[in-house]
Design a protein that fits this description.
Blueprint: H1 2-7, H2 11-30, H3 43-49, H4 56-71, H5 73-91, H6 97-115, H7 135-145, H8 159-162, H9 164-182, H10 190-194, H11 206-240, H12 245-265, H13 283-292
Length: about 300
C-alpha cells in the first residue's frame, strides 16, 4: 500500500477501467427487451439496415447475419450481451486484461462489419459527425493504446504501450482519417448532414429534441462550413502532438470538447435516452483517446509509474 501511494495513480489502469465501463454500458444497452425480438423493431432490422448501399459481398454477409439473428433473436442477442460482458469484466482484472483487450479488438472488428456496415465508409456516409468511420473502431484503437506495459505514463499514457513515436503516428493517422471523412461523402450534402441528427426517436427527452431542432437548422444552412471547420480542426489536432506539450494540450482539449459537443448536438448522446441504441456512439471514446494523449511532465514519470500488483 505504501509503495502504491508513493508511485501515485496508474493512469493507464484507470483508462482501462474507463474502457471496461463503456463496454459494460454497451452490454446493458444491448440487453434492452426490444433487442431480443424479431421484426422491424428488433436487433435484426438494425443489422439489415447496414447492408444498404454496400458492395454486394459485404451487403450479402450483413444480410445473412441479420437473417440468423432474426431466426434466433433471443439466442443471438444473448450472445452479443455475453461477449460484451466478458470484455468488460475481463478488463477489470489484471490476470484477464490481455485476453480481454484482444477480444475487444476482435469483437470491435466483427461489430464494425456486421453491426455498422463498415461504418458507412464504402457508401460515402462515414462522417465523424455521425460516428464515422464507425464508433466501434474507437474501442479497438483504445484497446491497442491501452495494452498493459510496465513503465511510466509520462510523457502521455498512450506512449506507454507503443512508444512515443508510434503513438504519435497513430494519433496523426486517426485524425487525418477523420479530416478526410469530414470533408467527403455526406459532408458535401447539407440534406444528408441534417439526417445525421438522431432526434426522431420516440421517447427522446424534450430538451434533447429542442437541441435537435437547432442542430438540424445549423447543418441545413451552414453544413458546408461546419464540415470544413471540423476537417481543419482534425488536421490541427492531429499535428498538435508534434508541436510540444502546450500545443498538444490545446489539441487534445479541443478534440475532447469538439466531440463532446458533437455527442450532444448531433449524436444525441448516442440515442441512449430514446431507447434502441446499442452503444453511446463515438463521442465518449474520442474523449477517452484524447485523455490518453494529454501531456504529463517528464518529472512526473516516476510518480506515474505503475506498481506491479497481482490479481
Amino acid at each position: 500500500m505504501a509503495l502504491a501511494a508513493e508511485l501515485g495513480p496508474d493512469l493507464q489502469r484507470l483508462a482501462q477501467l474507463a474502457l471496461a465501463t463503456l463496454w459494460l454500458l454497451d452490454a446493458v444497452l444491448q440487453a434492452e427487451p426490444s433487442m431480443f425480438t424479431g421484426g422491424a423493431g428488433g436487433f435484426s432490422s438494425m443489422l439489415a439496415a447496414g447492408a444498404a448501399g454496400n458492395p454486394t459481398p459485404v451487403a450479402w454477409s450483413i444480410s445473412w447475419a441479420a437473417g440468423v439473428v432474426a431466426h434466433w433473436p433471443v439466442l443471438s442477442n444473448s450472445a452479443f450481451v455475453l461477449v460484451q460482458l466478458v470484455i468488460a469484466l475481463g478488463l477489470t482484472r489484471r490476470r484477464t486484461l490481455r485476453p480481454a483487450l484482444l477480444l475487444s479488438v476482435a469483437w470491435s472488428l466483427v461489430v464494425w462489419w456486421f453491426g455498422e456496415g463498415l461504418g458507412g465508409v464504402l457508401v460515402g456516409a462515414a462522417s465523424p459527425l455521425g460516428g464515422g468511420p464507425g464508433s466501434v473502431l474507437f474501442y479497438a484503437l483504445a484497446a491497442v493504446l491501452l495494452w498493459p506495459c510496465p513503465g511510466a505514463d509520462a510523457p502521455f499514457v498512450a506512449a506507454r504501450a507503443l512508444g512515443v513515436r508510434a503513438a504519435r503516428g497513430v494519433w496523426l493517422g486517426t485524425w487525418l482519417v477523420l479530416a478526410v471523412l469530414s470533408a467527403a461523402g455526406a459532408a458535401r450534402y447539407p440534406g444528408l448532414l441534417r439526417g445525421l441528427v438522431q432526434g426522431v426517436e420516440p421517447g427522446e427527452p424534450g430538451w434533447l429534441l429542442a437541441i435537435d431542432h437547432l442542430s438540424t437548422a445549423v447543418l441545413q444552412q451552414e453544413g458546408t462550413w461546419v464540415t470544413v471547420g471540423l476537417a481543419l480542426l482534425c488536421l490541427l489536432v492531429g499535428a498538435s502532438v508534434y508541436a510540444g506539450p502546450l500545443p498538444t494540450k490545446l489539441g487534445t482539449a479541443a478534440a475532447a470538447l469538439a466531440f463532446l459537443i458533437i455527442w450532444v448536438f448531433v449524436q444525441d448522446l448516442g440515442g441512449i435516452l430514446a431507447g434502441g441504441a446499442t452503444d453511446p456512439n463515438s463521442g465518449p471514446l474520442v474523449v477517452l483517446l484524447a485523455l490518453l494523449y494529454w501531456p504529463l511532465r517528464e518529472t512526473d514519470g516516476a510518480r506515474h509509474r505503475a506498481p506491479v500488483v497481482p490479481g
